[in-house]
Write a structure and sequence with these properties.
Blueprint (H helix, E strand, L loop, with lengths): L12 H11 L5 H12 L14 H19 L16 H11 L3 H10 L4 H13 L1
Helix pairs in contact: 1-3, 2-3, 4-5, 5-6
């Protein structure tokens, strides 16, 4: 990798390689290989392409690649299919619209249809009290 960066020719390659090896200790080879390819091909953002990456920058990119590889290898969660809900008859929807628009007869009809619904029952009692 060092030979791919001409401005880095003055550095001691043995020392640079040792620094890289210390920095990437414990990182899988696939991640190291992917990171090296990104640096050599110039695809790492904010990297001066004339110089070889520092050992810290190289290790950081290796860790990023390791995280990406691990994310790809995780099993995907299957989404459960949505259970079909029963359709609301059109006349009930019309009653709801009418009740929302203030129709007293629609509110009474809904109270008859849903006597155990406290909100509808309370609204119907309120309407009866107003009469």
């Amino acid at each position: 990798m060092l030979s791919g960066f001409p401005a880095s020719t003055g550095t001691d390659p043995d020392m640079q390689i040792r620094a890289y090896l210390v920095a990437i200790e414990g990182i899988p080879l696939e991640a190291v290989w992917q990171a090296a390819k990104l640096f050599i091909s110039g695809k790492v953002r904010d990297h001066n392409r004339a110089f070889a990456p520092s050992s810290a920058s190289f290790a950081e990119q290796c860790r990023n690649q390791q995280a990406a590889i691990e994310a790809e290898s995780r099993p995907r969660m299957e989404t459960e299919p949505e259970t079909p809900q029963p359709k609301v008859p059109a006349y009930k929807m019309q009653l709801l619209r009418d009740a929302a628009n203030g129709s007293r007869s629609a509110k009474r009809e809904l109270a008859k249809m849903f006597p155990d619904n406290p909100i509808i029952a309370r609204a119907a009692r309120h309407e009866e009290a107003l009469r």
